[in-house]
């Protein structure tokens, strides 16, 4: 069973599906706790994202370089999640859809 499900308030029409959810099983372990590319450049980042396919850790689009999106564009890996403490969401780049953990979905529906 997939760990992620489309978030009802994901900014997309109800019923929108993500066919990539199953590709995140099992979810890859993060490769680092920093954006290594930013470290090499000597730059800070706003927030970190983790690729669910391979565990690559990159900075978010609000950061100077947006290495997480660049990773998607070069690798084709469709899913990433927030690496920030307390964040429980993921994003499908292909379907442009926010995802939430399956247990959050079940709790909100009853």
Automatic annotation (TrEMBL):
<protein>
    <recommendedName>
        <fullName>UBP-type domain-containing protein</fullName>
    </recommendedName>
</protein>
<feature type="domain" description="UBP-type">
    <location>
        <begin position="16"/>
        <end position="110"/>
    </location>
</feature>
<dbReference type="InterPro" id="IPR001607">
    <property type="entry name" value="Znf_UBP"/>
</dbReference>
<dbReference type="Pfam" id="PF02148">
    <property type="entry name" value="zf-UBP"/>
</dbReference>
<dbReference type="InterPro" id="IPR013083">
    <property type="entry name" value="Znf_RING/FYVE/PHD"/>
</dbReference>
């Amino acid at each position: 069973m997939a760990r992620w499900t489309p978030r009802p308030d994901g900014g997309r029409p109800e019923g929108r599906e993500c066919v990539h959810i199953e590709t995140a099983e099992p979810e890859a372990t993060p490769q680092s706790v920093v954006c290594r590319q930013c470290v090499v450049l000597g730059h800070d980042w706003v927030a970190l994202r983790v690729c669910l396919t391979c565990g690559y850790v990159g900075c978010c689009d609000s950061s100077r370089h947006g290495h997480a999106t660049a990773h998607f564009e070069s690798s084709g890996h469709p899913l990433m999640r927030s690496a920030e403490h307390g964040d429980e969401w993921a994003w499908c780049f292909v379907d442009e859809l926010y995802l939430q953990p399956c247990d959050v979905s079940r709790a909100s529906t009853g």
